[in-house]
Amino acid sequence: MMSSDNSPTSVATAAAIPITSTDAVGLANAQLSDGRRRMLDLVNRLHMTGVQIDIDLPQIAVIGNQSAGKSSLIESISGITLPRAAGMCTRCPTECSMSNSPKWKCIVSLRIMTDSAGQLLGEPRNEQFGDVIYEKSQVEDRIRRAQRALLHPNILRSKFLEENEEDIVDDPSAPTFSSNCVSLKISGPKIADLSFCDLPGLIRSSSGEGSAGDVEHVERLVESYIKKPSCIILLAVSCETDFQNQGALQMAKKFDPNGERTVGVLTKPDRISAGDESLWVRFIRNDVPGYILSNSWYCVKQPNSVQLREGITWEQARLKENEFFSMTSPWADKLEPMFQRYLRTSNLVERLSRILSDLISKRLPEIHKELENSIRTTRGQLGQLPKAPSRDPLSEITALIVHFTTDLSRHLEGVPQKDGLPQAIRPAQVAFRKAIRRTAPNFKPFDKSDAKMHTLARPDFLDNEEEADDDTGEKVEGTEDKSEDNAPSEPIAIHIDEVLRQAQESRTRELPGNYPYIVQERYIRQITDQWLEPAKALCDQVHVLVSEYVLRMVQEHFRDFGMGLLERQIHVIMQEHLKNRLEAAQSRIDWLFELELRPFTLNTHYMADYREKFMAHYKGARHEHSNNALMQQINSYNAPTETWSQEQTPLSKVLSGLVQVGIYGVEATDLPKLLYDPMEPALVIMADVRAYFQVAYKRFADNVPLAVDHELVRGLEKDIFDIIVSQLRIYSEADGLQICQELAEENPYTAGRREELTKKLERIQAASRELSRF
C-alpha cells in the first residue's frame, strides 16, 4: 500500500510495488479517514436532493472522445462491467457512488432531472430501478436496461425490467441521448470511497441512426457539467490518436484554461505509434506547453478487446496493468522513478479521492452559506408572488370583494391624504363656482353713449364674501392659474338706458310708473341659461376623476388574483355602475337647472339687503358726476368716534338729524338713494336682478357639487357589494362554484414560477438539513 509520506522518493518506491489480488483500488481502508468518508457520503446525499441545480457541488466528471477508452477506465475504477456495443454505449450520464463495506452490492436508480420535453423538473425524481444486485455479472444488463428506460420515458419502466430486450420495440421518436442519469451505488470490500459521473463521449458526427443534433446535444450536456467551478474534470485522452484532434481535450482547456481542476488520464498506452513515445512521456512529466495541469497527467492500461472477450477478471486486469508498466518501454526504463506514481489505476484513484475530499472540505462551509443565502432569497421571491389560490375560491373571492367595497367606502368618504379623492375633486368644484360667479350681470348705471366717460368701481361689500369663495383651504398645483387663464372676458355691459328701454317696451296695461316683472325675469333667465354647461362639465370631470380613482383601486385589490379575470370583470362592472351613477347625477343636475329657470327665494333678508346695497352702489356711481361734491363728502366721510362733537360736518349733521326725528340705521352711503333720479325704475330693475343673482348663484354653486357628490361619489357605494356579486353570479346554485374556480385560476406563469420556487426551496432546505446532520 502507498505510504502517507508525500516525498517523491517514497511515492515512487511505493508505486513500483506490484499490486496483488488482495489490494484495494484507491483509499478503501486505512488511507481515507472516517471524516473524509463522511464528507463523500454527504455530497452524494446532496446530489440525491437535486440541489446541484442551484448550488455548485464538488463532483468528478469523466469526459473523453468516443472510443477514448473512457468506459474501460470507469470499469477499472468501479470494478463493474459497462454495456458494450457497436458505436456509442454511454447514452446518458452515469453517476457512480462507491464506498467500502463488508459485502458487495449495487443499487441501480434513475435520476429524472428533465421531463420528456427536456425541461428541468423543479425537483428530481430518484427511482430505484429493480432490486438490489449482489452479483457483479448482473450489473451490465441492468445498466443497459436502465439507459433504454431513460431514453423511452413514455414506455413503462417495468417493461424494461421484466421483458426480454429483444421484445421491446424502440420508439423512433425517442432521443438518442438523455440528460437524465443512471445512478449506481456500489459498495463492497476493496472498493474506494469515490464518486464520479461518467458523461457520454464526444463524437465528431452523428451516426446514421442518430439524430442530426446528437453532436450538439452531447457537447451541451458535457459543458453543463464541466463549466461549474467545483467540477473536477477527469479527462481521458487516447494515446492512439493525435491529442490535438481530441475534442474533449480542447473543451477541458476552454473551461479550465489554467488546468487547475483537470486531471488528465492517458489511455491505450499499448497503441502508441512507433517514435511517438517521448511525446506521451512528456505528458506524464507534465511539461507539454499549453497542457500543464496542476493535478498532473496519469496513465492507465486497461484490457484489450481480446482479453475482454476471454473474460478477464478485474483482479487479473490490475495485475496485467502493473506488469505492463513494470516491463514495457518507455514507462519502465525511460521514465524517472519520481513519475512512477502517475502510472496505474490505483495511483489515479488515490489521487482522485484526495482531490475530491480536499475540494469537499474546502467547499462545505461555502455551500452552507450559499444554501442559507439561497433559502433567504427564494423565500423572498416566493413572498413577492401573488397569494396562492385557496381551496375555497368562493370564500376568498367574497373576502376580496368585501375588503374592496369597505376600502372604497372609506376612500369615497375621504382619506387624509394629498392624493385622496375629495382632494382631487375640490379644484374642479372651485373652478365651477368661479364659472357660475362670472355669469353675474354687468350692469352699468350710465347711458351707453356716455359709457366711455364713466367707470364703475367694484362694490366694496362683495370683497369679503368673494375672497372667501376663492379660498379652498389648500393650493392645488396648476389649478388656480389654469382657472384664471381659461376665465372668459368681462360679460357684455348692460347700460341703464338699455334697461329702461327694455322695461318701457315690456309695459302693457300697467299704470304710469309701473313696469312688468317680466323684465327682471328675462334678465335672470339670461343669466341662469349659462349655468347648465359648467354644471355638466363639472359632472363629467368628476366622473373622470372618480373613474380613474376607482379603477386604480380595482387594480390594486384584484390584480394579483388568478389570471386577472376577476379584475377585468369587476373593472367592467364598476365602469357600468359608474355610467349609471353619472346618468343619475346628470339627471339631478337637469332637475336643479330647471328649478332655477323660475326665480324664487325665501331668503328675503339677504335679498333685501343686497337690493339696498346695489341700489346705493348704482346711485352713488351716477351721482359721482352729477353731484360730485356730495359724493366726495360721502366717500371721505368717517363717522365720529364720540356721540357728541363740537365740530360737526354738514354730512354728520344730516345723519344725526335723521336720528333725532326717529330714523335709525341710515349710513352715509345710503344718502344717494334720497336723491331724485329720472332713471329710478331702471335702477330698481338692476338692483333686483343683481341682488337675486347673489342669492341664486350661491345656492346653485352649492347644490350642484352636492348633488354630484351625492349621486356620483358617495352614491357609488350604495348597494355596491350586491351589484358586484350578482353580476359575477358567484352565488349561483347552478354554476357558481365553476365560476369561482374559473375566476381563481392562476396565471400559468405565476403558477409555474411558484412551483419552481417551491420545489427549489424544498431542494435547498433538504440539502441544508443534510448539511446540518453532518
The averaged pLDDT comes out at 85
CATH architecture name of the largest domain: 3-Layer(aba) Sandwich
Shape: rod-shaped
Low-confidence stretches: 1-32, 206-210, 471-488
Helicity level: 40-55%
CATH topology of the largest domain: Rossmann fold
Protein name: P-loop containing nucleoside triphosphate hydrolase protein
GO molecular function, one term: microtubule binding
Pfam family, one: GED
Keywords: GTP-binding, Nucleotide-binding
What are the SSEs and their pairings?
Layout: H1 8-16, H2 34-49, E1 59-64, H3 70-78, E2 94-100, E3 105-114, E4 120-128, H4 139-151, H5 157-162, E5 181-188, E6 194-198, H6 214-226, E7 231-238, H7 247-255, E8 262-267, H8 277-285, E9 297-299, H9 305-309, H10 314-327, H11 345-384, H12 393-413, H13 421-437, E10 442-444, H14 463-470, H15 479-485, E11 493-495, H16 496-506, H17 518-528, H18 532-558, H19 565-595, H20 604-626, H21 628-636, H22 650-660, H23 680-713, H24 720-728, H25 736-744, H26 748-773
Helix pairs in contact: 2-11, 2-26, 11-26, 12-18, 12-24, 13-18, 13-23, 16-23, 17-23, 18-19, 18-23, 19-23, 19-24, 20-21, 20-23
Domain GED: 682-774
Protein name: P-loop containing nucleoside triphosphate hydrolase protein
InterPro entries: Dynamin, Dynamin_GTPase, Dynamin_N, Dynamin_stalk, G_DYNAMIN_dom, GED, GED_dom, P-loop_NTPase
Describe this structure in words.
With 774 residues, this protein is of the alpha/beta class. 34% of the residues are buried. The chain has a 9-stranded mixed β-sheet, sandwiched between helices. It has 2 domains: 8-377, P-loop containing nucleotide triphosphate hydrolases (Rossmann fold, 3-Layer(aba) Sandwich); 412-627 and 675-740, Up-down Bundle (Four Helix Bundle (Hemerythrin (Met), subunit A)), CATH 1.20.120. The protein is built from 26 helices and 11 strands. Helix 13 runs antiparallel to helix 23 (680-713), helix 16 packs across helix 23 and helix 20 (604-626) packs across helix 23 (680-713). The model is unreliable at 1-32, 206-210 and 471-488 (pLDDT under 50). The longest helix has 40 residues, at 345-384.
